[in-house]
Amino acid sequence: MKFQLNDFTFDLRASLAPPNHIWVASGYSTVAPLPNTVAGVKGLFSPPFAARDVQLLLNIEADGHTVSDTGNLGKGDCGLLYAGAEWRPDRIARRGTYHYFHEGRLISLFVQSRLVPLADRAGFLLAVRIANRTERSIEVLVKPQLTSGRLCLQPLDDWDYGHPAPGEPAQPISDDVWENEDVRMSLLHDASMPSYLAPGEDVERCMAVVLTRSGEESDNTESLAVWEKRTEVRWQDRIDHMCASLPKLESDIPGLEDYYRRSLVSGLICLWEHPDFAMQPFPVVSGIEGAGICCYPWDTGGYAGRLLAMMIGSESMMELAQLMANSGIERHSRFSPSGIGKDVPYSYSLWSFFNLIWSNMEQHGEGQQMYDVMRSLLLCDEDRLPAWGVLLDYGKQHNLLEMRSAAHEHVVSSPNAERAWCYDRLADLAERLGRGEAERWRDKAEQIRRAIREQLWDEEAGWFVCRYPDGHVERVYTIQAYDTLRMGACTEPMKSALLSHVREGAFLAPYGVSSISEEDTIHYELNDPDWSGGGCYTGEATMLAQTLWEIGEAELAWDVLKRLFWMGRHLPYFPQEHYCDRPAVPSHKRANVIAGLSGAEAILFGMAGLKPGADGKLTVLPHPPHEGKVSVEGYLFRGRSIDIHMEPGYSRIVCDGVVIYEGAPTLCTI
C-alpha cells in the first residue's frame, strides 16, 4: 500500500490555521474540538443534520476534587491544561496534564482523548484515557456535560455554500436525550461508574453523541469501540482506493514532501460517501466545517480534474460529469448533495466541465460519449450571453470573480480564452467520432483567440483590458491573465509582457502569489485575498506554477511553487484562500477546499512533466529543481507504472521497472 493513515498525521502545535478551521470528518459526519481543551467538543454536522452550537465538556472528579476542562487561560488552578494534539484524517488525538495540590495532597493526572467522527451515522465518539501519576491510589469519575444547543434538520436540496440556519433549541426529554420538533440528540456513555486507580494505572471512558430524527432512538446495539474502529477502517479503505493510482513523492528538498501530502489530503477530506448523496464519493467544495457541503464545478473540474480522474476513476468521473450537466450547469454555479442546482450562472463552469471530461479522456481514454452534452452546453453559452463581436459578455462580478470593485467584468480575456480551448477540445472529439464538425470548431477557437489579441490587449500597457457594454474600459492586473496565457491566446511579445509581472512587488510575495498585482493601486486591497489582492484563492498560485512549467519557464515555476511550502508545514489541509505577505489564513473564509489538489497537480504534471494524452500516449519532460533530488514513483497510466527520478541536470524514467531513459532531462514518449 502506497499510503497509510499515519502518512497524513499532522502535529497541531505547528498549525497556523485559525482555531475555527480545525475539524475532522469521516465522509459522513464532521466535528470540531473546542479550542484549548483536552476533550471538549464544539460543533457537529452530518447532512441532513446540523448541530453547530452543540458543546460537550468533561469534568474529572479525582478524590472528590473537580478538575474541569474548559481551556481556562488564567493562572493558578485552571483545571486540565491542554498540552498538544495531532490531527489525522479519522481523528484528533489530544493530551493534557493536571498537576496541582488540593488540600495539601498532590493530584497528578495525564489525560488523552480521541475525537472521532462517525462513519455510518450522524455523530461523533469521544474516548478519554486518564492516568494516575501520584504515588497513591485515587478515585476517578468522568462527568460529561452536554449542551445540545439548536438542532437543525435541513433537506439535502438546501445544503449550499454557507452553514445551515440554526434550528430550534432542544429540550431534555430524559436522561442524556434532548429533542426539538425535528431532531433528537442522544448522549451514550460508560462514564457513570468511578474507577480506583493505583499509582501508574489508567482507565479509558468512551462516549458518543448521535443525531436522529425526532422520536427515533439511536441504534446502540454495537459497542462504541466498534464505531470508532469502523471510522478508522473506512478511512484506510478510502486511502487505499483513492490513492492507489497516485504516485508517492520523496525528496530531500525541505517542505516539498509535506506540501505534496497536505495537497492530497485536502482532496481526500472533500470526498463524502454519504449513501443519500447524489453519488458516492460526492466531491464537495469545502465542507469540513459544515459549510460548503455542495459541489462547485469550477473547483472540482477546473482545479482538481486530473487528480480526481486518478482518485475516483473513470466511471465516477463520468457520473460526476452527468450530474453536473443534470444540475443545470449553464444556469447555476454549484449544486447541492442531492444534485439540485444553486445560485446564478458562473462564467468558469463551462470550461471546468470540459476540463473534467478531458482530464478523464487523458487519464483513462473515456468520455467521448459526452460529446453531444458538451456541444449543447457550449452553444448554450453562445445563445445565452450577449455577444461583443466574436467575444462574449460574461456579466458582472457575481458571474465572475466576485471582486469588490469595478474590475474584471463583462468582456474579459478569461473566460473567453477558456471558451476557445473548449472549442478546440470539441474539435478533437469531433475528429475521433467522425462528426464532421472539427474544422468549424477550430475556426471558432482561432477567431476567439484573434479577437482577444486584437480587442482586449493593450499594447502600450502590456496587459489585457476589460470592456463594458457602455464603452467603459478597465485594466485589472489580475492573475486571471495567466489563464489566458495558458489557453494559447498570447503571442510571444504578449507572453513576455505578462511574465514581466511575475516578480516581487507585483504578483509575487514571500509566502505566495497575490490575486491582484500590488502595482495595481486601483484594485489591490487586503481584506479579500480571494480575488482582490494580498493573497489568492487556493489553486491560483499552483495553476500559475503549472502554466509556467508548461510554457518552459521552469525556474520561475519553481520559484512560485516553493513560496507555498509553508502551507505543507503549518496547515493540516489547505483552506479556501491564504495570504501571501505572511504565512496566514483568513479565519472568516472556508477552512478547506478541494482545489487544494492543484498543488499535487502542479508537481506531477508540471515539475515532473507528466503529460497524458487522450490518444493513449504519455510524454514526460521532467523539470528538476536546482536544489535537490525528487522521486515520483508509481504513477499509473493505462496499465503501466511510471517512476521519475530527478536531480539538477539529470533525470531517470522507469516504466514497469525498466529504465527507459537516463541522462539530461529531455522529452520522452511512452
From TrEMBL:
Full protein name: Mannosylglycerate hydrolase MGH1-like glycoside hydrolase domain-containing protein
Record domain Mannosylglycerate hydrolase MGH1-like glycoside hydrolase: where: 425-569
A single GO BP: carbohydrate metabolic process
Pfam families with a match to the protein in the record: MGH1-like_GH
UniProt superkingdom: Bacteria
SUPFAM superfamilies: Six-hairpin glycosidases
